[in-house]
Amino acid sequence: MKKLYYVFIFLLVIVAIVFRYPPAFFITDLVNDNKKEILLQVDDKISAKKQSDLNVEIIDIHSGLSIYDAKYQPKITTVVQPNHIYQVLITDSKYSMTQEEPIFIKWDNDNHLYEMGASNFWKKNTTGCINIPLLLHKSGQLDSLPQIDLINTSGNQLQANFHIFDSSNHVIATYATNKRPQFDLNRLIANVEYKVRFSNISDNYNKPLDMLIKKTNDQQLIVKQNRHWSLLASRWTIMLPQKQSSAFKYRLTSLASSTNETLPTPQVINGGDIAPMNRLRIVDKIQGANIEILKEGPAVIATKRINQVNTTSGYKDSDTKFGRMPSTLYSSFHLEGDQVTNGQSEFSEIAVQFKGSEVFKDSDVDKILADANAGWDSSDLNLDTTNMWIKVKYSNAAYYDGELVDAVALIKITPFKNRTFDPNNSNYQYIATPNYTLSNPMNNWAKTQQPFYPTIQLSQLLYRGWVWQNVKEFQVDLQFYQKSGTLINFKNATMSSKKATYYTINSLNPEGKDVEEYNKFTRSPVHGPEFVYPYDISNAYKIVNSNIQTSYNGGTYAGTQHGYNGGSAPWGGDDDVLGSPTFSKNSVTMTTSDTSHIKMTLGNMLKDALGANEKDQGQDVMRTNYMWASISTDAFTNNIVHYIDIPVQKKWVGTIPDLPKGIPVQIIGQWLQDGKLMQEVEQEQYLTKENNWQVVFKQLPTEKDMIQILKKQASGATITDFKYSVKEITDGIDVLKDYDIQYAGDSSKFVITNTAKKTSLTVKKLWKENNVLIENNYLTQNFLPVTVHLKRKIQNTLDSNFDRLIQLTYNEDSTKSWQAKVADLPINDSNNQAYIYFIEEDTKGIEPFYLKDYVKNNITLSFNEDENKIEVINEKQTAKINIIKKWFDLYGKEIDNQDLPKIVEVDIYRTKDGSTTNGEFVQTVSINRQGDAAPFTWQTTEPIEVITKYANDGYYTYYLKEKSISGYLEISSDSEKQLTFNNQTPGEITFTLKNKVNPVYPQTGGKGVLGLIVIGVIILGVANIYRKLTTNLEEK
């Protein structure tokens, strides 16, 4: 009993160790050494509900591809490679738990398991249990980015930098690895994806793919390192393998096809049942479409862009041996309507060639010809581990809800043997597919031992699809992105929905009527894919009397394979014509689930060799030179939805407002359902200055087909009068309140007219002198500013509340000088009566100019600003005055001697009433004697400029006043020294001033006169004495 007790205690200790950290992976070997059965046990503290949120992903760090990715389940099985390192990721869709430390695992050649955790040391695992600690989520756990550690496969740290890119692909931060970055998470916008990209990595190591990070609403940081989002712990470790040398090869046995799981039977769609509106539309000849390579798998040996049109010369290349494209395939990638310039098509494709099969020695020729898997790296025979992959970006790939979007495709293939090179052909032409016979299964041409090179060709137009040769499985994983970089997530829908995302693969024809017959080669050189195996779909569909099967029996050795295919029923010829009633018999349509992927595997169905009783007597199957596949977003022939594009144009009447973000405009579907008006927004775009106020709403169902779609949704209801309409969304755009909106047109083209309720008016000042416009702006620089009153009225009733002062001033820029623009003027009043606008100039201070006229005053404003202009004209009228002086003696004879005054001063006066008194003094001028000797002349030295007019009908009267001269008498007539101007007055006039010498009488009495003077003086003296004496006596 005591021994049993110790045994029991020992077992408890082992159990405690095994279940110390949840979840735990138990690995046990199967019969196949390369398959591992992984048992996953979760601690009983983690509820069943939380277990259902967990996802297990195992990533091969050498290829970056997942070898296992599925929801948690107790037991999983996957294929692993000796000495390959795998990262185990546990993700939680609810973000309630996070993986505490990275876990890397590997098996050596002796199937010993090793693991590496936070210690960065490989430890041999002798228990068979891999412990992965999980931590419960804590809100506010991170306040900065985690430390990112790069390590090599030995656990040693690698130095590098990493950059964070925002959605506009701008770097917002750069840090070094292996250090905790000081990055404030508040800089990240919640629910916006940011890209992490590494640089400055040693050339000896593979550069990791870009990763995505995102901040959640509760301030947690999540990362998408491979396929799933997961919470970030305080440290983030990435292991980088060294680049593989050419000597490195996988050593695996043949792997099973990835399409080894049964597919559900497609649902039957009746003819005439219209399909839903497809939210994803992949169409031909999208402007700006292009393709570029993002990343190449290790097995890519060459790429080449091709756009030559001459198919007779083929796509030959002496180094990479791309071979030729037959003319029957040429029409798939290039259409008659394609533009060709100098032998080059407007559309090109990228050819990608992968590593060829190894050349065996003579003794092994039969093996390489008879065994489809011989000559290839075994890892390349499985889509999960193949190195034959390439990642490309399709720019302008499709429309999603009418919006132009891009796509990224990860394309993976497994190799096959269809044809090889003719070594005797200098053009490196491919040898045609051999004729199989019982006596010579591969013919002598194959004994040349030339490699088989898997080659694919990808059109720059996603619509035109893909071509491949020497390929068994062609897997494409498409993800679509908005132009902002946001990943598009498709919604779960079915063919019964009004809207869905769905795609169709046509021409699924593993045999058809071109059946391979004994001793005959009857296969066409080009045909479509033989099967499709979709992922992430909600359902699959086929038509009535469809040939589509879910599996294919290839014979004794090839066995049963799974995938939607056309089976063995005859199909081809007239069937294989797009639009034919029977075209869709070999087609299958898939609707997506809630996913961001459109992923499918296409390719060959394996079939036993003709006449082969044993597997080594022939190749698996005789196949065509080329296979071509495309992805269609149309439904079956009899269920197809027809689509139209609807252009919308905006016209502005009046001022175009400044709208940096443009105006949202919607296409709305309207219909009557049992007489009740119904409507739904179908698409929305922005009209902007940059797109010239024009957009095109893309890929909308025709109005006729929309009625059928709606009838399917509202069973039993009467649906009539469906039509598209357009609506401008003005909410939040205050400036549009000043515009009236009118809609016109139909689904062929809509026109939206925005008519301004307000406009602007330009008031301009014109300066004139003597009826001539002063055009030289510089001459007006010293003029004083002018004030104008802008007023308005309705008919003859003045708006007393409106009087806007406008100041017109000089500006060095002649286009701005003496003018002003008055904005936001209502055209009509609240009763829709037109305002009449007019101006009144304040004439104070404008002298010597006067208000001459208004041009277009009393204007009714137009929506066209260029027509709204009022001008005011100020004019200055001038004349020149000359003044001459003439002298006369007592006898009226003109004299001009040197005794006359040299200078005479004259005052100039003016009046407005025509009088010649009490006038306004103008100036004093001097009349100077001219000449050096008699005869002399007297005149002003230069003409004197005077203002002749003070109003439209007002002229000045000018008159002269000579300052008095002793001894001379002014004898000018009125007409000679005064003038009232009028419109007939010449521009230069002369005033004449005349002076006569005063008379001087001579002495006539001689000395007798002196006596009289003396007597007079005496009499005056006596009289004065007498007056004084008389005065004194009176006083006494």
From TrEMBL:
Chain ranges passing through the membrane: 1008-1026
UniProtKB keywords: Membrane, Transmembrane, Transmembrane helix
Name this protein carries in UniProt: Prealbumin-like fold domain-containing protein
